[in-house]
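Researcher: Going back to the complex we discussed earlier. I've cleaned up the inputs and rechecked each line, so this should be the final set. Can you rerun the prediction on the complete assembly and write out the structure?
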Amino acid sequence: MPVAGDPPLTKELRETLGNLAEGLFDLAGWLRSPNKYVPPLPAAEMPWRAGGHRFTPLDLGVITFFEGELAASGEDDLFSRWAGTVDPLQASPLQDPSGWRANRGLANPALFGVGVNALLTNASGNPLSRRMFYASYWQPLRAAVAARQHNGPVDWTRLANDLATDQAPEWPMGSSRSSVFIMQFVSDLLAGMLGMSAPVSAPMRDAVLVELGEHRRRGNHYEPAAADRDVQALRALLKQLTAAPPPAPAQAPVYVPPVGSPPHDKK
Amino acid sequence: MDIADFVVVGSSGGGGTIAWLLARAGHGVVVLEQGADWARTLEEDLPPYDPPPGASPPLDYDERRYNPAPHDEYRFRIDRPEVKRRLRGDYNTFRSSNQSDAKPFGLGWTGSMLGGGSVIWGTWSFRALPIDYTLATHFAATKQLQQLQDWGYSVPDWPITYREMEPYYNVAETLLAVSGNRDAVNQGIRESQWYRAFASHDYFKSAGNWQPTFPFPCPEFPLTPVGDLIGQALDALGWHSVRLPSGMVAPGSGTYATRAAITKALAQWSGPPTFWQQHPDKLWSDTMRDACNMCGFCGEYLCWGKRGPKSGTRASTLKELDDLPNAEIRTNARVFEVICDDRLRRATGVRYLDITNPDKPEVRTQLARNVVVSCGAVQSARLLLMSGPPGGLGNRYGQVGRYAMFHLFGLGAACVFPSALQGYLHGELGHTGNTMSFEHYFVPDGKGQWWKAGTIVSTAKKNPLENAIGAVKKGVRGGALLLAMEVYARGVELRLTGDDLPRADNRVDLDPSYVDEYGFPVARITRSFGPHETQLFQLTRPLLERVFEHYQGLKPTIKSSDGIVDLIGDHQMGTCRMGNDPTTSVVDTHCRLHDVQNVFVVDSSFFPTGFGLNPMVTVVANALRVGTWIAEELRNGRDPARQPSKKRARGPEVTRKEKIDAWVRLEDLP
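Model: Rerun complete. Updated structure for the full complex:
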């Protein structure tokens, strides 16, 4: 089990995760894809598009960000206190919580379901910290990578895909599913790429947001005139589009969250 | 304060407002809030901002007024849910039928921080419409009431009138610094089809003032590209788009003086109660609030402005309260029991856990002559059911927790525009929501009847990270994930805040099995949609899709959705229904428990019906109404807990000595 104060990642693991991040997010290929939106910015403000540069998640410092999350994960270890709680009533301030419950027609013994509020849970639904979550995956990941390296240079895109679909035969039997690891790792990488806290300076920090046409940034502030300019720009575009031949159909949404969703999909 | 005049449990629109009023009226008030004061942390991160008198603001003035710390999409929205919604270790359970076992679920949250949900709300600031107070009369007149009853609904008129509430709405809007255009709102209502269909009926005309003249205290919020896109489509359909009234100091409007705004509201009030006749200097300080800078991070976040651009009790009434010597605010105070003396039929205080260190909670007692419960409709019901006799406090007739309403979240339409619009929608501008329409407050069924729906609001896509992570959890990855992220940036939504009509079986009670971190039963929410909701989905979805068909030439992708039964947020209403009959309601018209009349419930629990719009303005207005009544009673030497209400069951006679003895016994409590 990891102990607070341990270095979150070894050099070797850092390198492996960096390669895996590149395999999971082919950002350079994305920029080259047909009909890709080109942000209307001067080239100097988009160094990730500079000639000869290959845009990868590492440009945004995602592994450093991820390591920071692991280091901060200690404060989440309080979840282990709940997970290990044998008697859910042991912290009750009531003198006789079981009697109190019985008097109110409630069942004994009581159950503890706090896992629904946790960011991460194990296979049993019990909360655990990020550090604990990942700790159980490092060994099988090392084994899978080592096995592929044994056969030559690793195709990280392929490995990422195999892990995401539980199709990597090198992933040790009996380990937790690799797809669960990948799903969480991708989510954490996204937090590094879109979460506005990437440990690199602008403009690189905002590269993915810029490429998405997202203007949401930490420190944003506007006057009404700015909103009006944007309204006028959209009106002008719509006028132009409606005068022109119809554009290609809009790409169907791959994922549309329920309208009005409260944040999170934690149910 | 050993024995407070009032202990107020919860600090959002209800509790935070009434606490200020009662303290300002001179009474000893203790506010207990289970969350921490997150906004203070943000304020303390900032250097002093006040320039010397007469000096121009320094160059870094904006930096001193605004703190970008909450602009951390990951930290504030995903990584640490307890920061904004609920305490560590707290949760609810849900079931869709009273025949099934409930399971823990992560929704139905309660804003757990000083200021509660009024800190993290969406700021959509509507008053209820007059007809919301008389729905039973309306449906009886249209001969639909019997149908609703046959379907299992209990739709009453409110026992108070819009007319009684109107002056408090005016004041509430000043506390919330609502930005909007009253004439436009009035026109939007007046020219809706349903309004024109009903307008000739006497009951409709007499329901209240349909065209209020009190201007919103702030000019309307600037138009955004998403608001304009949808507003134009609404107007093309003849559905009268209106700029969304918003509880924020309008961008570009300079600073906001609450005291001056209140003064204007009082000028419209002929013969206000004595409390409101005080000189404005006695009512409110000279503090100013800053204008919103449209940073766009406030939806379900803390506002980053130091001087309250976003409205809520934390930025207004609680700030005033904090300066009063007869009031005290305690955070991290998690109340688990309203202490009640059964013989006196009075509450004598509350017991709570001081969870400043959540690993080492300490039990504390706050004695009080009156208790005000305002924890949100789910948690207020839970607290009452955990208090008093085994059946719960105020629950003699089994009404506590019933008629829970949550609005029809999920009902709406989404539209994705072609890639030519990438980068043009600017969803980041301002809060979520910009233009709206009253056109669907009632919708026709094509058979000559109109059914209650609600308000529709344009909503921008704001949280690319959250959407992307949601896609990952659905199994999307690789190039498809990047594409989904692109698509998100050119999507918009229309949300219908639909009215779910009250049914007794939709309720909150104590979960028989699951407990929270401290061993207390969590709230169990039982909810299903009835025939009215199902019919409403069928009627409204095509209407919502029609809005986007205005842009058919662009070949957008349009998708509508029904309400989602367990998509429960912070619009929580009912559970402590207000009424005159103790056998069918929980509180009377002064929001006192029928059973224990020194316990008041002033959050949205008291709502007999749920409107089709955000409840915050009504909650604040009602807290002002109830607080004013209490203050007047006390000023006239009357105990507000002793006014007999109709059909009140009388308890045994209690002597003065016994009352004194009861207070003495209370001191033995831990």
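Model: Worth noting: Residues 645-652, 662-670 of chain B have pLDDT under 50 and may be disordered.
Researcher: Good, that matches what I expected from the previous run.
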